[in-house]
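Chain A, query sequence.
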Amino acid sequence: MTTRDPRLTPARPDLADSRLRGLVEAERFVEGQPRRVVAASAPLRRTPRVEAGLDTEAVMGEPVTVYDVTDGFAFVQLGLDGYVGYVPEDALGPVDPAPTHRVTALRTFLYPEPNMKRPNGGYLSLGASVSAQDRDGDFLRVGADAYVFAAHAETVQHREPDFGGTAERLVGTPYLWGGRTSLGLDCSGLVQLSLLMAGIACPRDADMQEAALGDALPPGLDGLLRGDLVFWKGHVGLMLDTDRLIHANGHHMTVAVEPLREAVARIAEKSFGAVTSIRRLPRSAA
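Chain A, predicted structure.
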């Protein structure tokens, strides 16, 4: 049978998505059940263990398909980018009501009442989505005893077209392998979050992004534009102008801006090797 990317294939030796019948081998095939992330964020791990490494994260409002639940972990495929793994079962809830608003602030707090002086019950990250049931003064009611500041959210149809500007807002965010929230990001998480806020579908990992996004430019570091994506084997950054690169990276352990040529020289010497491609999205998307 054709080899499939395990990151995007909801299949195990004992169980697989029924849509993969005849395409993969498994002891049984099941229909996935739609759910939605109801926690502020949900870690997705390769194996159902809390000590397993973080592959990626899903944030409130994102749809998932559940194939199995065992010992408090759900085996899922994320609706956003197709990533497969295990998330805590208690991070998931019903599909309805569908989200109406998306958080556009880097972070916003959840309050039990429409009053900023009340003790908050946690935060939501940039890109999280909620169902606004009504408005009470300066707050949106997004659940039983749950309110967010209305100016920190826009309708889900809203777009932030300057994805370079979104990335710049995240400067200083700590580097986190697998991170996809404004509390911690990895290189491809920064690119994905920035593009998604612009309404641009984006895969999760750097190799997937290199294969799917934009058109390859001729080799060389000249003539680059804001929004161009620079790829290495296992790394990606975003150009802010002809000279400056923004990227979440393990050298600074943060989202940082630096001259592209300095980054290229250091990365070639110490980590990912040479640039593998530079890709340009359509100008309408930049």
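The mean pLDDT is 96. The first helix runs from residue 163 to 169.
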